[in-house]
Amino acid sequence: MGEDRHVPAKTTVIYCPRSARPCGVYDHAVATASAIARAHSSVAFRSEGAWGLVLDGTVRTVHAHYPSVGFGWGVWPVLWLAALRAAGKRVLLTIHEYEAAHVLRRLYIRVLASVSDVVFTPCADLRAVLGTRARRVMSGSNIELVPVAEGERGALRARWGLGRARILGFFGFSKTKGYDRFLDLARRLPADWQAFVIGGLEVVEGAGDGIVRTGYLASQAETSRCLQLADVFFCPYPDGLSERRGSFWAALAHGVPVIAYSGPQTTDLCRGPGILLVDPEGPDPIGRAVQLLPEAANGPKPRLPDAVSREAICATYLAEYERGERERR
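Predicted structure:
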């Protein structure tokens, strides 16, 4: 969609600062804003001109998406949100991280939330802190499914040097998703399995560890095709599987079984056919994950729950936009 300075002023603006490096929160903001704007001409997306929104009299609601890589630690986001409210705007905020954040980051998030009217979040702990001002929303998958024809699969495997082995996949932009634990499992894979890292993690030239790494893939279609090459995904998130993990939802959206670490935020929505959970506090969780590989690969394929679809996420946001407009009348 068109964006930034050339977008006409709108009743509701979804804002997320452009990131200099890959960012799932930015992708979430773009995907949801694009989907909503296609059906509602009163909504636009911007990634620049934050302070201009304060003075724009045609904008009544600003929905900001908080990525740590975009907002950083500066005081300006707090001042900006406060200025928006002082100008009579309704301020909504989406926050995707809380449980896994350290103490100072949690405090900063709570300060941001305190100058917002409503906070959308997939984090149950943050919803408990904020009470009635919080709304539950899913992170969802930012990667749209691009079907791979059966005849295309062999060519893709050959392109990445995957051979005939079964593929254990890892997907993500950062090492905070449990990459070190994935490497531990990769070292213990059976001989008929191969590790495949998809996404923004740097390609290690001459690593000699047998792991195939794509590096950052600018094309969503290419990312989708690579996701479908995996037989199983391993998701050993340090804080356990939860509703905020877009890489987990992407695996489900592509029908790939998942082995994941459980945690205190692992809800019933994160359980079901094709999802096998490992207790990270149990004896040898990596060894347990190795044991589960055949069951995962040969078992049922998972599906993305309807509540996590892009349509459901957009409906959650739209309901709050419309509620705010009704209250203004």
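Summary: The first strand starts at residue 12 and ends at 15.
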